Input
Amino acid sequence: MRPGTPWRVAANLATLGNALCGAGAIAYVLLGNKLFALFLLLAGMAFDGLDGLFSRRSSRSGGALGRIADSVADGLTFCIAPAVALYFDNYPRSLWSPWQPVALLVAVLLAAVGLTRLVRYTSSAWQEDHFVGASTPQNALVLMVLVPLFQYPAFVASSPPALLLGVLAAVPLMLLPVPYPKMRRGAPLRRLTAALSACVAFSLVVLNFRPSPASLPWHLAEGAAGASGVLLLAVYIAGPFAVNSRPRGPGRPGERSHA
Output
């Protein structure tokens, strides 16, 4: 067996796991379980992180094919699936019905801008030491944070405009030339991002068990959802300042990372 092959195989399996999470998320949205769909998006982020970790440990380059496969999986999980989740299964109908055309427009923009970013990243921007624009997983986190706050179970309020405006505000940041650090070992925002992911995961896991309102699990999920909103805002604000402005070398050839 060639050196680095086990890590390369593991990276490919992580890419497949990411894509399956995206496909599963779309299926669960269409079946009417949006909260579990969002949890699958978070699981897709975990597989995407493992993909990058395994690729960096491999002595074999994944090459262009590896980057393309990774971006296809990211496109499904972090662009198309969030767009489907935003447009379908919008409860309560009485509030969402007037906003459905706007939701469709925002969903199309979310998918189109995310896929455009992935094409740019795969073709040339992967060589940069940092992200140019927010990554697609980071943008998917916006939906995971806002849905519990403004839709299911609406800890803040049942507000389609707040949810749509929050998603719409984050979409252009995927294309604007704003630097964000890659979440490698020692990255300045790695702990902050890990805390954000943990809060989102805890909130979504608890909510998928349908706790009774005003129960202890309900309040814990509410606190985690509120903390995730604060942490997400901190990541978006602090990200550009955490990127070292000193020029650094390009990424390893064939290295995959969150796009």
